[in-house]
Every structure is written in C-alpha cells, then in structure tokens.
Automatic annotation (TrEMBL):
Entry GO MF terms: flavin adenine dinucleotide binding; oxidoreductase activity, acting on CH-OH group of donors
Organism per entry: Oceanobacillus bengalensis
SUPFAM superfamilies: FAD-linked reductases, C-terminal domain, FAD/NAD(P)-binding domain
Keyword Oxidoreductase among record annotations: yes
Cofactor dependency: FAD
Similarity section: Belongs to the GMC oxidoreductase family.
PANTHER family xrefs: PYRANOSE 2-OXIDASE (PTHR42784:SF1)
Keywords of this entry: FAD, Flavoprotein, Oxidoreductase
Start and end residues of each Glucose-methanol-choline oxidoreductase C-terminal domain: 429-553
Residue ranges of domain Glucose-methanol-choline oxidoreductase N-terminal in the record: 221-330
Name recorded for this polypeptide: GMC family oxidoreductase
Length: 571
C-alpha cells in the first residue's frame, strides 16, 4: 500500500551538486523543499578515517550497490546487453552529496565553442564538416548567458585557478589563487613553454588557501594528502555539497531532507507531474510525495531512467532519429597519453591532490585548425599529481610481465620515477550511441534497468591518433629514459586511465523536436518538471562536467522560482 503525503511546493530527486544547489537557492528564497536521497546521510566527520584505500578505492564504499541496481551495456543493437556486475571505467555515487563527495575537484568551464558548436563549426568549415551520423546541436544558451552562473558557483565552492587567454571572458578572477606548482608540474611547464605553449595550473575545487564563501561557509586549505578521488575530504578542503550548500539549505529551516528514499517513478498524466513515488530502502514502505514542481537531479543514467520508467518525454529511436529521452549519450575520450620513465630522477609522487595539475589550452575545442582533420573538437593535454596510492599504483614499462619477479622489480624501480603527459578529449554524439530501458533485467524494486548502447567511434579514434602525437612530442621534450604512448605505438585504448564523465540522455536545446529540456532545464513535455545535471549536455567537452552542470543548476533555480510564481514555459 502506498502512503500519500501532504503536498509540497518542490520535491528534489537526488542530493548531489545539482539537487543541493537547487535546494539551497530555493530554501533561501523561502520556498519549502523536500529533498529525497536514496543513499545515507553524510557529514564531514564521517571521513575522519577516510585514508583506507581498500575500503574506498577498491571496494567502492561511496558508490551505488550494483547487486541492487546497475546498468546493462552493449556495443551495438545487434547484441544482447548484459548487466555491469563490478565497476570498471566509470562509477556511480550514492549517498548525500553524490558524486560531489567522491570527485577529484577539477573544475573547468566549458568553452564558448561548446555552447554553439553546430553554428560555429558550420560558420568556420561549412555544413559538410559535420558528418550525418554525428547529431551535433547548439545548447540553446550561449557562454555569455551562462557565465554569471559559473561565477556564482566558483565563489560558492572557492575554486582555485588562473585566467586562461584562449578561453571565454570572465567577469571575475577565481576567488582563490592556483594550487602549488610542484616539481612535477614544473617539468611539464618547462617543456611546454619551450615548445611555444602557454601552460596554466588547472582550476581546482581543492582549496589553495583558507576560504570563506558568500554564504559564510569557512573551509580549510588542501593538505595535499592524495586521497581525493573516490574519497571524502576530512578537512572540508574539497568542495562538497555536504560542507557547502546543504548546510545553508538546512539552516533556513525550509529543507525537509529524507535519506534512504529511492524514487522509482514520477506520477504524471503525460503533460504535468503531480509528484513522485519513493521507497524507504530500510523498511520497503512506499510513499507518494505530491508536489507542485518535480526537480530531477540524480546521476546521468538515473535521470534518463526515471523519465523512461515514468513515461515522460518521447524515447529516442536510433532507426529514425526521432525522440529525445536517451539521445546523445556521450562519455569522454581519455587516451592518447604518454608515460615517461626516468632511471635517475625521483619525485614525491605519493603526495598530491585530485585537481593538482597543469595543462595547455592550445588543443582544446576549436583552438586549432580542423580544416584538414577528420575529427572535431579536441583535448586538454596535461600532467597531474593526484598522489600514487600504494595498492593501486604499480607502473612498469610496456612489455613488462604483469606479475612475478620482473614486475616487482620494475614497479619498485619506477615507484617515484614515472610521470605522464595525459589527454582528456571531447566526446561527440553518435546516432547509434544512446540510452533506453532494458527489456530483460530489473532492479530490486522490479523496475527495468537502464540499457546503454555505446561504442567508441571513428571520431574518437582519429582524435586519439592526432593528440597522441602531441603528447609524445611534449614527453620527448621532458627528457625521460623511456616513453610509452597509447594511441600511437599501442592500440587505441580508452579504458586505460579513463574517467567517470557520462553525459547526455535528457539534452537541452531550443527545439522541442531535438531536445528534452529548454535552457532552464524545464521539460518541453511537462512544464513543472525540471531535469538538471550533465544529462542535459548535448555533447561532452574535453573538460570535467561539474562546473557546467552546477552553473546550469543555478540558472534552473531562478527558472523554478519564476515558474512557482507564474507557471508556463520559461522560454
């Protein structure tokens, strides 16, 4: 039996960055919000014993339990999808703060090129440059329109960084200065400057200095302990919803936060939502929470899955190209990198931070000429110093046995003598890469799992092939004794040193025929439903998505306030 609860103005589904920002902004405006999080409550003190690599890195303490809910995957629609039973190249967070608790903290803005990618590509190269199987589209918003919201997020989170010439104009500098330039970063800086590039310290949500944000939240500077990715921060130095926006929302008294509340569907009549159904994961009790506005802010996969399971929006059909829910799923192309081995140099590689790195901007977006190239967009090329945690780190040159005496000898030899010139490339949509519901597999509550149909494309392979030559050139300038370059001398392999940046499925735009949500992330098909997160990205840039999804969340919060006052479409 489902228990129906009293109606509220707003219900928010998922309390990661997007949901927490929405909740903070609306509650500060005096609006009552119910925040539903299927995972457990978290606070900073929970991370006092966080430096347990086995527990958090390898047993994925902060991640979704795949025995209860997972996704299925296939490379193309001719084969059967199978469930993901253990985490591989990407992970899905769980609990208060979501991925905002276990992220690394790399906090780039997307480029002006990204938001108008179709228009600007055709303007420079002609319409024929975009291949028919790549459904590129503008976002329905420009960089200049979203820039103030980037600025708001950066001030709230205390982002550390420095201005870059080849990127968009900024209304303000970063609120805190760049992170420390370690000897590792100096090696990259020296080599790239000699080659004529302009390296910069990457923008970081790991505070470079003590900081108090506009909401009065004070946090301590990063300790460079190396336990960022897949870990929470016991100092609060890494920006996390749990230590930034959620306390602000709670302080207002307008947030009703319910953990262990797994939303299974949105109640709707096809044009309007009336609330959500959720299950208490402890007791199994089912509740209906009515609301004037439903805000969907869970992870990329879960946003698309919840809409599909709720029959909201038209599902994407790869055969016809029609429909929008599940369309333009993108990942990220993190390959084409070089590993450098030194016989007579050592660094302290076991110290670091999740966003400690240095990068060049010359190969990002359309900052280089693509006229004679058979791919679009580009990659950030960088070196990072995350900190080599001891269980996971065993570097050895290509050709070394993967176990035994020689493996031990080489991994010990290079423990503090190996650097990398990495790349993180853009992921463009392909007609045959999409998300839908699996016809066979269900979760613990009997709801169909999300099915991913995805394979790397010729666009990806050509990008890696080109970028690998650049990383190799930089690596050679850094003077190692041995270099391994993936994508050039080794086979195309994006499963090495990859990341968790999934995007798309509920994409934004200016046309209801090709997008699911407008520039306020309000659904075209149900105007009291807002779907917020990286699921809105029509493609994935060469940068990490958090700053962009958070900026969009700030803009969406303004839209929700407007909707509560007057209703109707916001554009």
């Amino acid at each position: 039996m489902t228990t129906k609860l009293p109606k509220v103005p707003v219900v928010v589904v998922g309390m990661g960055w997007a949901g927490s920002i929405i909740s903070a902004e609306l509650t500060k405006a005096g609006i009552k919000v119910v925040g539903l999080e299927r995972g457990k409550e978290r606070k900073m003190s929970d991370y006092l014993m966080v430096h347990d690599e086995l527990r958090f890195q390898h047993r994925e303490e902060l991640m979704q339990d795949l025995s209860k809910e997972t996704i299925t995957h296939r490379n193309n629609k001719k084969i059967r999808a199978l469930p993901m039973r253990h985490y591989g190249t990407f992970i899905v967070g769980d609990g208060l703060g979501g991925a905002g608790s276990h992220w690394n903290g790399q906090t780039y803005r997307f480029l002006p090129y990204d938001f108008e990618i179709k228009t600007l590509t055709e303007k420079r190269y002609g319409a024929g440059k975009i291949k028919p199987e790549i459904p590129l589209q503008d976002w329905g918003i420009t960089y200049d329109e979203i820039e103030p919201y980037y600025d708001t997020f950066e001030k709230m989170a205390g982002i550390s960084g420095e201005t870059v010439e080849l990127y968009g104009e900024r209304s303000n500098p970063y609120p805190t200065g760049p992170m420390l330039k370690t000897p590792v970063l100096e090696e990259f800086e020296k080599a790239t400057k000699k080659l004529g590039y302009k390296p910069y310290i990457m923008p970081s949500a790991n505070l470079s200095e003590n900081y108090t944000n506009p909401d009065g939240i004070s946090r301590a500077a990063c300790q460079y302990c190396a336990y960022c990715e897949n870990f929470g921060c016991e100092y609060g130095a890494k920006a996390d919803p749990v230590v930034t926006v959620i306390p602000v929302a709670k302080e207002t008294g307008n947030l009703d936060l319910r953990t262990h509340a797994n939303v299974t569907r949105i109640v709707n009549d096809g044009t309007k939502a009336t609330g959500v159904i959720y299950v208490n994961t402890f007791t199994g009790e089912e509740f209906e929470q009515p609301a004037e506005v439903v805000v969907v802010t869970s992870y990329v996969f879960n946003n698309a899955r919840l809409l599909l399971n709720s029959n909201l929006g038209k599902p994407y059909n790869p055969d016809t190209g029609e429909g929008v829910i599940g369309k333009n799923y993108c990942y990220q192309v993190s390959s084409g990198y070089s590993t450098l081995y030194y016989d007579d140099k050592e660094w302290n590689l076991y110290a670091g931070a999740g966003a400690l790195g240095i990068e060049i901007p010359e190969y990002t977006g359309d900052n280089f000429d693509h006229s004679d190239l058979n791919f679009l967009h580009g990659a950030g090329i960088r070196t990072t110093q995350y900190g080599n945690r001891p269980i996971a780190t065993n570097h050895a040159p290509v050709g070394t046995p993967s176990w035994g005496a020689e493996f031990k000898k080489q991994s010990i030899k290079y423990a503090n003598s190996v650097l990398q010139v990495k790349s993180q490339g853009a992921s463009l949509p392909h007609r045959n890469n999409y998300l839908d519901l699996d016809p066979t597999y269900k979760d613990a509550y009997g709801m169909p799992l999300l099915r991913m149909t995805y394979d790397y494309t010729e666009q990806d392979k050509q990008l890696v092939k080109y970028i690998s030559k650049v990383t190799r050139k930089i690596a050679e300038e850094m003077g190692p004794d041995h270099i391994d370059t993936v994508g050039e001398q080794a086979a195309f392999n994006v499963n090495v040193d990859t990341n968790t940046h999934n995007t798309g499925g509920v994409i934004m735009g200016a046309d209801p025929e090709t997008s699911a949500v407008n520039s306020y992330l309000q659904m075209w098909d149900a105007d009291n439903v807002f779907v917020i997160g990286a699921s809105a990205f029509p493609h994935n840039s060469c940068f990490n998505p958090t700053a962009t999804l958070s900026a969009l969340a700030y803009r969406a919060s303004e839209g929700i306030e407007r909707y509560l006052k007057g209703g109707g479409s916001l554009v």
